[in-house]
């Protein structure tokens, strides 16, 4: 499968080592976190899911070593409705974006546990797919270009500010999705 992740980012992930892989996936998960946490918070029966998501993203930033329970968290995430097959193949806006957010976190957890560049690339690919979808539905948006820039920055020697930039980018994506939901409701 061809990936949306830039070739230079893939090459860096393949050669940089486990800690660089963990840093990259933590940043990707941080950017997608508002799409799950913001869209599922307050939903009846999803409190534990939101908490697992929130704790996992926070714990991913401890990049000096793998999380001891990352694989178990990925298994729990696999049970989320967003990662279950849809019977009719259709989904709403919230479901589409929370699906991508869950995919990103799943691959981030697997990459954290294994140090695998392949899981990291899958994580980045899911992030780029989500932001590309958001670009297509938002006039003049450049979310995918910003995601590509931040992915490149997160594997560079000058990754200062990646966390702050990731938080900001995630909030902007969330605002755009909420705006899109509001437009659809009218």
Q: Would you write up a description of this structure?
A:
This protein has 186 residues and is mostly helical. The chain has a single domain, classed as YP_001051499.1 fold like (Up-down Bundle), CATH 1.20.1590. It has 8 helices and no strands. α4 runs antiparallel to α5. The termini are far apart. The model has no long low-confidence stretch (mean pLDDT 93).
Instruction: Determine the mean pLDDT.
Output: 93
Count of separate structural domains? 1
Q: What are the low-pLDDT stretches, counting only 5+ consecutive residues below 50?
A: none
Task: Identify the CATH architecture.
Answer: Up-down Bundle
Number of helices: 8
State the share of residues found in helices, binned by percent: over 70%
The coarse overall form would be globular
- As a percent range, the share of strand residues is under 5%
Following the backbone from N to C, one meets helices and strands in this order, namely HHHHHHHH
Offer a few descriptive terms.
globular; 0% strand; mainly alpha; 186 residues; 8 helices
In short:
72% of the residues lie in helices and 0% in strands. It has 186 residues and is mostly helical.
Write the SSE topology.
Elements: H1 7-16, H2 18-40, H3 47-60, H4 70-77, H5 93-114, H6 117-137, H7 143-154, H8 162-185
